[in-house]
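User: Round two. Same drill as before: sequence, then structure, for each protein.

Assistant: Same drill it is. First protein:
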Amino acid sequence: MAAREFKPDRGAYVRAHAWMAAIGMGGAMAVLWVMGSPHIWTGAIGGLAAIALRGWYMASEELAVVWTLTEDALSGPAGRGVALSQIGTVRTMGSYVQVVTKGGDKHLIKYQADPAATLNAIERAKA
């Protein structure tokens, strides 16, 4: 089997941040409402600004992460890796693929355009 790379997708990154912004906006407005603020709408602006700033700041780092699947291992950034024989569970979570080892270590392959295809490739290599 030839090595296969899993690179993050910019569209998945933007969609994930849009969801985070919506949740952040609603959460910030709810906090202001509970506090009795007459300016609940400012929570929406704050939530949107916070997630937009985070998305802009982290984009170059997050979109540079590449995971590589070989015939015997899955390796990622910062020396992270796991032998295929040690992979216990693989599941999707939105645009992420979570790999859980038999020892309980967890790794996220983030912002996949087709997380189901990533999961299937890992499961096939494991078999």
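Second protein:
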Amino acid sequence: MIVQNYTNHKRLHPLFHFVFTLLTVGLVVLSITQLVQALRDNEQVMPAILFVLLALIVVVILLIIRSYPLKAQDRAIRAEENLRHYVLTGKLLDKKLTTAQITALRFASDEEFPGLCQKAAAERMTPDAIKKAVRSWRGDHERI
């Protein structure tokens, strides 16, 4: 397994990020083109409107199938990192930490995790700044 670090930790799923997304964009463009052409040529617009509506439904599905699993993973990461912080320090995570900050903190090793949690909460660090501050990277190979 490849050692994970800041430069290679982002993951793409080719079927979703490239194929499905490009096909959806193509469907939206073609459906709008078809509607404009039907309006311009004084043809029946109902099939073209249905085509646009179907394309919009596919866009909504695309957004939902990406956001729901990420929200579930974020909840799991928040719970895991809260438990890890408790085990290491005897205290729960600072309530000021956002979910985005906590998901970035998961890459910190146990040695630097508590200190980086304090710094992130005190300085309101961005998730990207947190990831860049990690010195001993702890890979997360489970996230999609």
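Residues 6-133 form one domain.

User: Perfect.
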